[in-house]
Design a protein that fits this description.
Blueprint lengths: L2 H5 L6 H16 L3 H12 L15 H10 L9 H11 L5 H18 L16 H11 L4 H10 L8
Helix pairs in contact: 2-3, 3-4, 4-6, 5-6, 6-7, 7-8
Length: about 160
């Protein structure tokens, strides 16, 4: 697989969503955690259409897995900072949905990678988990907030070495 597989679909719909998550898995199995996270984000922000349910789970658990199990020495970047910037700077259609998911992904990364910093130049505090869950409940898929809360509520993360 490569990026052309994503181009085979419009940036909307179940086929794009499934391809983005499949591509993320492909990148992960090739030892490319940072690129896998980027592919997960593509799926996370996909417009499936009003009232549609995702054909695969929303990738919060996959994001947590990548953050906590990335291969030592492989470039991960700072996904925590990346999702914070995405949430703050997001524009365009379905803004409330995509922003809620960016903050949800930020919290997954912040929980899994507490040693990585947020943007210290940003004076605004990130939203509390209750506000993120409320936004997911209002703007996400049915049950998405509960899925996300289950992921961030897990304990016993294995921190990367």
């Amino acid at each position: 697989m490569d990026y052309r597989d994503l181009r085979a679909h419009r940036r909307t719909g179940a086929a794009f969503y499934t391809t983005a998550l499949t591509y993320a898995q492909y990148l992960w199995t090739r030892g490319l955690p940072a690129r896998a996270i980027l592919a997960l984000a593509r799926g996370l922000y996909t417009d499936l259409g009003r009232g549609a349910q995702p054909p695969l789970p929303v990738p919060y658990a996959a994001l947590q897995w990548i953050c906590t199990h990335h291969p030592p020495g492989r470039f991960l970047g700072n996904p925590r900072l990346s999702f914070q910037h995405q949430a703050r700077r997001m524009r365009g259609p379905r803004l409330k949905t995509r922003r809620a998911r960016a903050w949800a992904a930020w919290k997954v990364c912040a929980t899994a990678l507490p040693h990585l910093p947020d943007d210290e130049a940003d004076p605004r505090p990130p939203p509390e988990p209750a506000a993120i869950a409320d936004a997911l409940h209002r703007h996400g898929y049915p049950g998405e907030a509960d899925e996300w809360l289950a992921v961030i509520g897990r304990s016993g993360f294995r921190q990367p070495t």
